[in-house]
């Protein structure tokens, strides 16, 4: 018995010792990870980061800057990465936030790298004055985007807006109602062309053959992706690798100079080939970017005839891509594509958030006015603060029409774009056919918001795409013929005869309830809120029915009074008629009496006395 007790006590002591040792190891691990993440965050704040998706030499630089321990890869897929947050101990939430901030910082720097890479065609012109690629890009409608300066990304603002996007209504659901980025926003902010032919055509399961023919680049079979490295090498950009200690601006300047030399060749077959390669890089990594480092070729069939590229409504296709990106999974922390658009849209319509810095007023398009301020707080703190600001944003401070004082000077693309403003229309980007439900946002047109039927999920089904392309060869000009006709007819004008927003806001509150609030401070019991609103609606309906009954009774009383008045009027008319008849009869009788009196007087003078007595007697009878 005693031996067994001593054995169990020894086993307990060994177990406690092992637990203390494991606890000590976990504490050391947490401390190392915290110190490591603090070093990384501090270095990110002081040293410009180069994206890990640019080139292979840069990937080595990024890996050297971010030490990898315990089997984690460069994107944070190990125990300390954001994808395995559920596996980390609950005692290190700051490590998770810092890791998320590092990943977002890399994504933002990659976006800035793409912007500078694509902005390298701004200035060069051939000495002989011939049309170079810059002129051709401007004729295609992309010149204004390529003239824009760098802008810092604001992932907190982007994520706050993403969390409020309703995929059914294709609109932001905010406490004061729906808000929707419009074609006018695209045209004025980016300068992209929102008029012309819809961006529609063929999509293929893979673009292997067409890519080899139009780009002259090798591709894997059954793929629609061009390796980014091969595409950059074909433009002479991949050879410019950043060395240790190089300044970011100097490195980007090298990219500018190399790209200018490559794009300044004389027109010809090789120039067309280079221009298509650049356009694929521009469309696949800037306007219609997707996740990953490879460049998709979905729009390559539209680049076969370069002279026709400028006739497409690329701005409308860009807006459709933005809508689709906003409706993607909530796990994504940024939108795909040209990120300054959504940021500047928020700066203009919600200036009270204080997220934009007006640095270059007077330039066009409007995106060139703004930049995003630096914020040293963590992404989680920024997002929490932004959600609270949006939930408590004063309704009267919402700017529905930010362009009232903006003229069209220096913006020739607006002349042909104006007929497309203020209309609900279908947007096309190949297999993306999405509605612009501007009738939900009538206040942006200076109108009162009328009560409208809220849309449900679009019945126009479209297959999704993956990085390997669509599964069938499809001609979207035939499959989406009805929607293309809608675009060619410019959709439907938005009109409103409402004098108040009350009816719309009541329906809006019943549909969304507490879903319009995202901050913890404004979280409400959705079920209780809906029940309260239903009770209020029921009470209002009862009051309306009582008022309708009272109105009906008053109408009946008024009708009876009217009928009685008509009867009195009829009696009065009859009395007046009888009185007139009596007066006529009396006047006739008086005339007859006067005539007979004259006759009797005549007989009295002419006849003998006996007759006179008879006349007197007759007269007496007559007067009687």
TrEMBL record:
Biased-composition ranges for Acidic residues? 31-42
Q: Which domain of life is it from?
A: Eukaryota
Q: Provide this UniProt record's keywords sorted from A to Z.
A: Coiled coil
* Sequence ranges of Basic and acidic residues compositional bias: 1-12, 58-76
- One Pfam entry for this protein is PMD
GO BP, sorted A to Z: meristem maintenance
Ranges for the region named Disordered are 1-91
Aminotransferase-like plant mobile domain location: 141-449
Residue ranges annotated as compositionally biased, kind Basic residues, are: 13-24
Coiled-coil region: 537-606
Q: What is this protein called?
A: Aminotransferase-like plant mobile domain-containing protein
